[in-house]
Design a protein that fits this description.
Radius of gyration: 26 Å
Strand order of the largest sheet: 1-2-13-12-10-11
Structural class: alpha/beta
Shape: globular
Helix content: 40-55%
Largest sheet: 6 strands, mixed
Oligomer: single chain
Distance between the termini: 61 Å
Bound molecules: 6-O-phosphono-beta-D-fructofuranose
């Protein structure tokens, strides 16, 4: 049995419609309809969302809404917000929206708002204490640096937000992140810090993640060596986790452990105490504003009609290109240096959530699901891989994200950046006709033979879709709304594809095998219990290591 998605009337109507869309031409669509920008854009709060440069018509949008209804998206949205256990394989709710809600939300007869408020109050006391210098190091000194140790959802969100909101970091605290288990990362960082004024925050929902525990143990040994004493070390630690007893066993004092709950997924946890580095860097007021921006997007997602619902449109566009145009990748291109880490964050959000081949009902999906999400900050990418976006053989839809107003005063820089942001979307949509290419080459004085020879290389069809997201200014509120927009976009996709967006069983196998190999590395005996390649690599490593021993 396979999932019924492709048999839905709306899916089949979209398939027929797509055949008619093959001849759609963005350049012509804009000529035919001068109101296309107004029709295919939505302004919500401080974000202008322009999807007019996509291969869609009003009919496409109508069919998108039909598909969403036939897939019961409105009902799923209610289930999400209500706290139903929609993470079926783990029997959990996915209530990240409760972390930024203002209303009472009950789960198993418990008022979640009380738990959330209590942890927020604990964070507030702690962060304000550290920032004001009331909470001090073992030697009574003011903390100058924070090292946040975590990985995946316990790292990418807070890291992105700390970098994005750097202009709001008014205090003297410097916040650093370590995620990779490669010792090069933690060594380089610790070497640059003074243990006597460094606070270490261990962020791990499970408090069992190998990389995080290895980095935390190294940081602990570093603190013990420099501070000379176990009691001193406790004053330099705090933790964020759903397993407070494990954090306690590691040596983090109970009052410094900030809990999260099993109803918060790792990659959706930024709004919980996982945001501690953010609150330490920019203060609790700004962290509250970030949550308020997300709440604003939640309200929009829950109440806007599907035809004007920004996360729904973004999610359905994702489905449109993956399933009807065969796009296997999706580019995220922030034209903003401070959003440099957005592609990495969205990579986990979308690929860990929707990178599934089996539906909620345990059946094989007979359609493609999540694309490969990738990208880097503009304008750098223009001088690296944009050639392929313009003239390559793959259709790669792209999200372009920029801010209308920068935090710096280099007006000229910002205008160059903005000019490139819009010019690239225009170039992707328009391409260059043979006629335009000929006129250009002749104006450059090229002989006719060269014009003829170069024409196929210098003309290209364009018609490459993009979505532009223009933020008024990258402040906490707008950033919160942007990240919640993408959370909900991914949820929409998961509903259409009928996959559970909140589990990640695929990553478990690699973790188990790594544990097994690690145990095998403990001695010098060659291994044979793997395929020849794996055993060969392990044995090579062990043999070389053995030889180097005195
Ligand atoms: O890589 C899998 C994963 O479980 C992610 O989903 C999660 O964000 C990350 O590991 C870190 O997990 P933890 O917070 O439990 O250390």
């Amino acid at each position: 049995m396979t999932d019924a998605l492709t048999r839905l009337p709306a899916w089949q109507a979209l398939r027929d419609h797509q055949r008619a869309c093959v001849n759609l031409n963005l350049r012509e669509l804009f000529i035919q309809d001068p109101a296309r920008f107004e029709k295919f854009s939505v302004h919500r709060g401080d974000i202008l969302f322009d999807y007019s440069k996509n291969l869609v018509t009003e009919e496409t949008l109508r069919l998108f809404a039909d598909l969403a209804r036939q897939r019961e998206l409105p009902g799923w949205i209610e289930r999400l917000f209500r706290g139903d256990r929609i993470n079926g394989t783990e029997g959990r709710a996915a209530l990240h929206t409760a972390l930024r809600a203002q209303k009472r939300i009950m789960l198993d007869g418990r008022d979640l708002m009380q738990d959330v408020s209590a942890v927020l109050a604990q964070m507030r006391r702690f962060c304000e204490g550290v920032r004001a210098g009331r909470i001090r190091s073992a030697a009574g000194r003011v903390f100058t640096d924070v090292v946040s140790i975590g990985i995946g959802g316990s790292d990418l969100g807070p890291r992105l937000v700390c970098e994005a909101l750097a202009p709001y970091a008014t205090g003297r605290l410097r916040v650093h992140f370590v995620s990779n288990v490669d010792g090069a990362a933690v060594t380089a960082l610790l070497r640059s810090l003074d243990a006597a004024t460094t606070l270490v925050s261990i962020a791990s929902k499970t408090f069992t993640t190998q990389e995080t525990l290895a980095n935390a143990t190294t940081a602990k040994a570093w603190l013990q060596k420099r501070l000379r004493g176990k009691t001193a070390v406790a004053k330099h630690f705090c933790a964020v986790t759903a397993a407070p007893e494990r954090a306690g066993a590691f040596g983090v004092p109970a009052e410094r452990v900030f809990v999260i709950w099993d109803w918060v997924g790792g990659r959706y946890s930024l709004w919980s105490a996982m945001g501690l580095p953010v609150a330490l860097a920019v203060g609790m007021k700004n962290f509250d504003a970030l949550r308020a921006g997300a709440r604003d997007m939640d309200e929009h997602f829950r109440s806007a009609p599907l035809e004007r619902n920004v996360p729904a449109i973004l999610g359905l566009l994702g489905v449109w290109y993956v399933n009807f145009f065969g796009s296997a990748t999706h580019a995220v291109l922030p034209y903003d240096e401070r959003l440099r880490l957005l592609p990495a964050y969205l990579q986990q959000l979308e690929m860990e959530s929707c990178g599934k081949r089996v539906t909620r009902d345990g059946e094989l999906a007979d359609y493609a699901t999540a694309p490969v999400v990738w990208g880097t900050a503009g304008t750098d990418g223009q001088h690296a891989y944009f050639q392929l976006l313009h003239q390559g053989t793959h259709l790669i839809p792209a999200d372009f994200i920029a801010c209308r107003k920068p935090h710096h005063r280099l007006r000229r820089h910002h205008e160059i950046l903005f000019a490139n942001f819009v010019a690239q979307t225009e170039a992707l949509a328009r391409g260059k006709t043979a006629e335009e290419a000929q006129v250009e080459m002749r104006a450059q004085g090229l002989p006719e033979a060269a014009v003829k020879r170069l024409l196929p290389h210098r003309a290209f069809p364009g018609n490459r879709p993009s979505t532009s997201i223009l933020i008024e200014q990258l402040d906490p509120r707008a950033l919160g709304a942007l990240l919640a927009l993408y959370e909900h976009k991914v949820f929409v996709e998961s509903v259409i594809w009928n996959v559970n967006a909140f589990d990640q069983w695929g990553v478990e196998l690699g973790k188990t095998l790594a544990d097994r190999v690690l145990r095998e590395l403990a001695d010098t005996a060659p291994v044979s219990s793997h395929d020849a390649s794996t055993a060969g690599l392990i044995n090579y490593f062990k043999a070389k290591r053995k030889r180097r021993k005195p």
